[in-house]
Design a protein that fits this description.
Length: about 325
């Protein structure tokens, strides 16, 4: 063997050895993962729907993975601060995001963000869906959606609704657009304060997450006029959908889902997803979710990615077609 051939052979052999070692290291890292606590970052304050489903889900994920799972709240910029933080985190499976519909999809089209809701993330599993509820202060002389539309048309710009940005505002903007009415948005810093404002009569209407709406509905402090989902909600079957109550075609669904940073190894993403799916087979967990107005899901990364892509297409098209703009 010539000296040239021998040197070339040594180089190829060394390259193969390094590749094998790196592959073995990566495989071993994924086999032993997780070796330390995992964080689920929530973009909103404790007590809301996103925080609640994270805290209900975390023990089951912890049980399946055999490692502590902690919930951390990072507030700011309508959920964008925490969402960007996770997007920029190491793609090692130790920092996850309990994402929600607005920061992940809708907000891409109505404000400047430091992340892409799909490209910068690896979808893990859809955790839940939940509707919003259009509610009125009892002092407002309307008993249903049709009466509300008639009143708003007779008093353009005189009625108002409380929200906390994102879907709580956009639900109202879509309602206004589809019903051809003018009602004024009044911003609050959270869903609970917005709902409280409607209870106090500071605003006349609100679009609230079902979890915020339910106690006020039960206490008779607010009147439920319609629900934003395509079908009536099983826990409040007496409340009609907004579509059937007077605005045909109206549908707005909220959701929460678990995301990892983009480039997180597929094996790790799949392990977390399987942990979610396994945990969500527990009837007790499902019951706890349903009690707060969330419909538990727990699907695959591929199914969740398809949902996010569809939502991005839907909201992008709607914003382009209508020119709707909301508070930033």
């Amino acid at each position: 063997m010539s000296l040239h051939c021998y040197a070339r052979w040594r180089l190829l052999a060394l390259t193969a050895l390094i590749s094998a070692c790196l592959g073995s290291f990566a495989a071993n890292a994924q086999t032993t993962w997780p070796t330390r606590p995992i964080r689920i970052v929530v973009p909103y304050a404790p007590g809301g729907i996103t925080d609640s489903v994270a805290r209900i889900s975390a023990p089951k994920i912890q049980e399946a993975l055999g490692q502590s799972v902690l919930v951390e709240n990072r507030l700011g910029n309508g959920g964008a601060l925490a969402t960007e933080y996770v997007a920029r985190s190491a793609p090692d499976g130790y920092t996850l995001l309990m994402g929600s519909a607005a920061p992940q999809t809708l907000n891409q089209f109505i404000q400047k963000l430091g992340y892409d809701g799909l490209r910068d993330f690896a979808p893990v599993s859809l955790i839940n869906t939940n509707p919003l509820v259009l509610m009125a202060n009892p002092s407002l002389p309307v008993a249903n959606v049709r009466e509300l539309i008639a009143l708003a048309r007779s008093q353009p710009g005189r009625l108002n609704f409380a929200g906390a940005g994102g879907l709580t505002q956009f639900s109202g903007e879509i309602f206004k657009h589809m019903a051809g009415i003018d009602i004024v948005y009044v911003p609050y810093k959270g869903g609970a304060p917005a709902t409280a404002a409607a209870v106090a009569g500071d605003t006349q209407l609100t679009f609230a997450n079902y979890s915020d709406a339910l106690p006020q509905m039960r206490a008779g402090k607010l009147r439920a006029l319609g629900i934003t989902s395509a079908r009536r909600f099983a826990q409040s079957p007496e409340v009609p959908t907004i579509a059937e109550a007077g605005v045909p075609g109206y549908v707005v669904d909220s959701w929460n889902g678990l995301f990892a940073p983009a480039a997180t190894p597929v094996d790790i993403v799949n392990r977390i997803s399987m942990a979610v799916q396994q945990g969500f087979r527990d009837p007790a967990l499902r019951h706890r979710m349903e009690e707060i107005g969330a419909t538990p899901v727990g699907d695959s990364p591929e199914q969740f990615r398809a949902l996010v892509q569809a939502e991005l297409i839907k909201w992008g098209q709607f914003v382009r077609d209508t020119g709707i703009r909301v508070e930033q």
